[in-house]
């Protein structure tokens, strides 16, 4: 596996801007035909007396919520209107500025594959089903990347619109236990190995979500989703569950978890006895707090195929509601958000992220 890193595109862009002259960076109005000739040479006679130049930055704190709506039978509702929905922030009604179905908005999709020892018996099933899903859902204007996590976090395939590249990388993924000890270090994003405490590492699930949210998704715009194929068990992460959830919320990323657990592994019938399976509650919280879902498929291939089909349908039946909060302070605080919709006199079940952090748009990547 190759280390998890991100190309320094931002540095390249900044260098390109720095090499441009002021005349290249600013558009000039064409002079009037009757006007006298005007010198284009800069006036430097009183440069020392000029006050320092300042840049005016205007932040528009626009909150965007992607959500799906279902009726009491669980069927997705594809034809909602703005008048049928309300958005509340900290229990205060907000004025929705934009409301639209987003079936074709470009999608940034991250797929995270658990390659720790507990997935030994289900990895092949994940690869086969995941290949088919990626080939169905990824369109020319979409982009996806593939991450594996075990005793380290690795980028198997960077951003691409080619589903065959994702499928190829997924097929090449392998179980990695590092002999049960990951003390060799966790690859950081663009910064080499991260220091460890010398303790054994098992499955760096929370670290992986935290890193991917901050370093792969936060700077992206539009619809963003993470699909995590895992048993939900974390062992050895430096970040906590709350840190991973917060990072995903700040990146405005929806998390779907396919809970894939070979339960015999945890009950003593597998390689080791871990005292039972406990990953479902943490994964449910991670998914629901970001507007996604956890789907328990066990080690059943048919259930996994059905779960991928459900995710595909939801990602193609989303709505986008945007509003400027009545609370205009960008103080970094967490704001609770609720969406309520009613269709044909029926209250709908809404699947949306539960809140956001009020940080400046330049810093949020939202």
Automatic annotation (TrEMBL):
Keywords: Signal. It comes from the Bacteria. Residues 106-291 form the VWFA domain. The keyword Signal applies. Residues 41-53 have a biased composition (Polar residues). Residues 29-53 are annotated as: Disordered. InterPro entries: VWF_A (IPR002035), VWFA-rel_acidobac-type (IPR017802), vWFA_dom_sf (IPR036465). Residues 1-27 form the signal peptide. This is VWFA-related protein.
């Amino acid at each position: 596996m190759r280390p998890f890193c991100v190309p320094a595109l931002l540095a390249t862009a900044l260098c390109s801007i720095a090499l441009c002259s002021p005349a290249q960076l600013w558009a000039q109005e064409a002079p009037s035909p009757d006007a006298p000739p005007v010198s284009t040479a800069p006036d430097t006679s009183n440069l020392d007396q000029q006050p320092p130049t300042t840049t005016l930055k205007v932040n528009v704190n626009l909150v965007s919520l992607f959500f799906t709506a279902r009726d009491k039978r669980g069927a997705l509702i594809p034809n909602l209107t703005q008048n049928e929905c309300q958005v509340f922030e900290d229990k205060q009604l907000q004025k929705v500025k934009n409301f639209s179905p987003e079936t074709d908005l470009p999608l940034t999709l991250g797929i995270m594959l658990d390659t720790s020892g507990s997935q030994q018996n289900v990895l092949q099933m994940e690869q086969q089903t995941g290949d088919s899903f990626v080939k169905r859902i990824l369109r020319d204007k979409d982009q996806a990347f593939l991450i594996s996590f075990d005793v380290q976090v690795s980028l198997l395939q960077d951003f691409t619109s080619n589903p065959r590249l994702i499928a190829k990388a997924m097929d090449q993924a392998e179980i990695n236990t590092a002999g049960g000890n990951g003390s060799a270090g966790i690859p950081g994003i663009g910064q080499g190995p991260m220091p460890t405490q010398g303790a054994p590492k098992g499955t760096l699930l929370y670290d992986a979500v935290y890193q991917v949210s901050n370093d792969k998704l936060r700077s992206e715009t539009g619809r963003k989703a993470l699909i995590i194929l895992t048993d939900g068990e974390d062992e050895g992460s430096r970040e906590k569950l709350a840190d991973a959830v917060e990072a995903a919320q700040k990146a405005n990323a929806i998390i779907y978890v396919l809970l894939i657990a070979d339960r015999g592994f945890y009950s003593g019938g597998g390689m080791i006895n871990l005292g039972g399976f406990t990953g479902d509650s943490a994964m449910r919280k991670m998914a629901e707090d970001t507007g996604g879902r956890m789907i328990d498929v066990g080690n059943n291939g048919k259930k996994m195929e059905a779960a991928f089909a459900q995710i595909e349908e939801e990602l193609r039946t989303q709505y986008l509601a945007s509003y400027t909060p009545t609370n205009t302070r960008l103080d970094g605080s967490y704001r609770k958000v609720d969406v309520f919709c009613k269709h044909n006199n029926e209250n709908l079940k809404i699947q949306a992220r539960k809140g956001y952090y009020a940080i400046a748009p330049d810093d949020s990547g939202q």
